[in-house]
Amino acid sequence: MAKIIVAGGTGLLGTALVGALQDDRHMVVVLTRRPTRDNEVRWSPQYAEGLWTSALDNAHAVINLAGASIAGGRWTTARKAAIRDSRIQATGALVKAIAASGQPPPIFISSSAVGYYGSRGDEPVTETTAPGSDFLAHVCRDWEAAASQLSPAARVVLLRSGVVLARHGGALPQMALPFKLFAGGPAGSGRQFMSWIHLHDWVATVKWALASQDIAGPLNVTAPEPVTNEDFSRSLGRVLGRPAWLKAPSFALRLMLGEMADALILGGQRVLPAVAQQHGFAFQYPTLESALRQIYP
Q: Which one-letter DSSP state was computed for residue 35?
């Protein structure tokens, strides 16, 4: 049994991961701004000082999932600042607290996203691909740089996650709603790639990275078969028993969402989990059809 700290562990990903780690009999301490359970500790992500820092002593690992939702509202100047600052400040606070700890944890696993690569068309993307140049790419690059300050004193793993598919949280319920209303279909041209992963495989990948001493640096946390938006729409419609023919025009999405439309919907990345595959990680849901049919049986 190991002591593991999870920062930002009350959202979809954190809740699933914390439950899985507890099932493995780890002692999990969750850092959150609003603690409600015995294993939760109040923290202030903006500051590297406070009572929460003592929770890091003797920990085996810190897993950082903190950050404001990128889809929580139209990207105004203030919203973009919140997206960036919530990630950089929280990561910086954890890094400083770990470095100052008398018995610092040897493993730091920190969130990032496939947005690191920017919009890449149909180009296959691996962990060695250069970063993009849009807003999310700059956020992810700075986010990862903040986490990497702990290397080589700690083994740092950077989770470049794709869209995590789950029935009761994340993006999928919002994506499925138009289909359930018989109004689903591709967005824009439909040719943009979507890099996705089932929630079960996301949790399994993080646990695998935690246990694998030779895994460090960037790690694409995506399924091995990314799909185009059109293929995703067809698969989702087929699984739900709904048509998938009503397209959402690019101009309408840009009118509604502004800059966020291109970054999250109309652009895309064909991301491959090269490191995970090279090191033998086995996906339970490697294809989109298998993932969706498990979620919507």
A: -
Beta strand 227-228 pairing with 107-113: unpaired
Backbone conformation region of residue 8, classed left if phi is above 0, alpha if psi is from -120 to 50, else beta: left
Buried residues in 268-294 as b, exposed as e (16+ CB within 10 A) = bbbbbbbbbeeeebebebeebeebbeb
3-state secondary structure of 41: strand
The tens digit of pLDDT for each residue in 236-271 reads 999 999 999 888 888 777 877 778 777 778 889 999
**For residue 60, what is the DSSP state?**
S
Give the total residue count for the chain. 297
Quick check: helix, strand or coil at residue 154? coil
Amino acid 68: pLDDT: 87
Give me the torsion for CA of 202, 208, 210, 213, rounded to 10°.
Answer: -140
- pLDDT tens, position by position, 48-85: 678 889 999 999 999 999 998 887 778 899 989 999 99
CA distance 267 to 146: 26
In angstroms, the CA 254 to CA 10 distance is: 31
Q: Where are the alpha helices (DSSP H) in the chain?
A: 12-23, 77-100, 135-148, 172-180, 199-211, 229-240, 250-257, 259-261, 274-278, 288-295
3-295 in CATH: which number?
3.40.50.720
Question: Residue 97 is encoded by which pair of tokens?
Answer: 């607290």
Residue matched to tokens 């493995």: 24
Q: Under a CB-based contact definition with an 8 Å cutoff, are residues 192 and 268 in contact?
A: yes
